[in-house]
Amino acid sequence: MAALLVGASLAACGTTDDEGGSGGGGGGDDAACAGKIGAMGALSGPNASIVIPSVNGAKLALSQFLEENSDCDIELVPFDSEGDAAKATPLASQIADDADFLGVIGGAFSGETRATKGIFDEAGVTMISQSATATDLTTEDVKKVFHRVVGYDDIQGEAVATYISDTLGATKPFVVDNSEAYGEPLAATVISSLGDAVAGTDKTQVGQTEFSATISKIEAADADAVFYAGYIAEAAPLLKQIRDAGLEIPVVFPDGVYGADFPKAAGSAGEGAIITCPCVPIEDGEFSSDYEAEFGEKPGAYAAEGFDAMTVFLDAIKSGATDRAAVAEFVNSYDEPGLTKQIKFDDKGDISVDNVVIWSYKVEGDVLVPDQEISLS
Amino acid sequence: MIGALDSLVLVPMVNWDNLFSDIPGHTVDGLTRGAIYALVALGYTLVYGVMRLINFAHSEVFMVGTWAVLGIYTAIGAAEGDPLWFVIIATLLALIGAMLASAGTALVVERVAYKPLRKKNAPPLIFLITAIGCSLVLLEIFGQVLKVFFGEPFGRKPISIPSLVKTRQLIGPNGALIQTDVVTITNMQVIVFFGAVVMMFALDFFVNRSRLGRGVRAVAQDPETAALMGVNQDRIFMLVFILGGAMAGVAALLYTMQFDGTKFDVGFIIGVKAFTAAVLGGIGNLRGALLGGLLLGVVEVYASTLFDSSWADVTAFILLVLVLMVRPTGILGESLGKARA
Question: Is residue A36 part of a domain?
Fold first, then answer.
């Protein structure tokens, strides 16, 4: 009910056009610099290492902001969805029902984002995702509240295809996906970009641990590279079994595997595995050292993207936006350089394709080392 | 619209070539997969045969075994590339440790959860819900509780276990023993399959030939008469849980050797599959568990190659339904007590 009321008030005042510019203080000067921002994603579970660094990045943005603006009272509240759409839905309602929440960072994964963007839209809570990359999030069932600071899977899929055919020089790549909302469309893009070169395909299941059938298909196809579109929990055993079968061909994974836990789970088989990600490598610099000082480790997956997403919200609140409608308006007209790229959203909530970058990383020992930027043609 | 039609046509892409180009190889893969199902299925079938109880906590009994392997490797500092004599000792220690841990867990579940219920003559439904409860408790002990006290590696992440025995081809294009293109068999597949089969025959021999085994069969046939003849029913129940748990421990070692890792919920899927295998072969029947497990493994691999890997479960369960329509008690029937078992 509360959500409905807020939604109605948003509709009433959501008609004014953007006033252009950013940073320029809008509303009354006395407006309290206060509010809560939610961060929703898998903070526990096998895929948590893909999400926790980005939430830490957001925390860092907040603590640096509060040092400079000690009169502000802004809180970042994490919500652990375990990456599960069913668990994310009640969390979204909880955020939507609490009028103190002006925005939410997330959802971290595409499935939970798809399940909750309707709830946030109804309540007018602006979402800025640091890592939900499914293409259809901004093309199907479009919700005005959704934004993201990363490129989407169609771009990543094309980049993966470019990497496989140009950088690896593979002529008979084999494509496997995890039969689920993230992997399936991503694999489909890769397959269509690779065209006739694809030597074969297979679909696995979430929770599967035994891949002998997939591997016998890879062997039968005489493939010279493998791409697996899925998450860490299945990617690690699949890679091990590929290596155990004596196949020394390159194996490429997408950003669903870009987490510090992947090398640990894959053990010695992980060495040399390639991971693509629309996330920018963190050069040793101010952000990296600040992050390490705060959390005792190097910034991991999407840390800088989380920082950027939080910065947008902080700028909004600082500009005097005290309610959800004002924050939404501010975010829609935002145009500032972020850590990772120029942050400016188009009317679907996406970053401009010109600003998207896709990088490949290689597993070396226990860490993911930036390899090269993949050219987007 | 066109997209929808396309996907309708594309979904079950039957690929006969994939299946028939390498039938022997797929069969070996399937038998290896099925051997582990069969070992775990023994636990379900033993407990059901004697107590008419489906012990859903058995999947977690298996899971505890995999953690015991990790614990022992860590304790003795086993790592990849160790010399052969050390690998053999480490593996034997891991075998004993996993069997003790799994059997101990099964025994604790029986003593703490089921025995009090039995004393109060609780109806079967109460046992069933208690079993599911035990399963979740054990799951969360490894997924949450132990992490609070001991930190990593406990928790919800997949954990790598050192693979002491490197996978090598024995028979195949690069085989160490025989070079052939007909079939590929690795040392790991041989270890898993024969390890499982030997343990199953040992158990079968124990139940059919030993004095204690006679007690197990007597209680399964007719608990009251067995009690009148001087069989201590309580001790037989404990024995059944210990035997089933020990088999799950062996399965846990073989599983970790093959897949080099574990996770707090590693038992779930294996448990479901093993239970299915037990029902398929005839629950309560030891040889049925073996047959059901191997058959399920082979059918899954055939289905994965014929369609996509994601079709394995669908096909396996269709097979289960079909078999139960013709033989409602499973392929070999369900009695542990009858002369057959």
Answer: yes
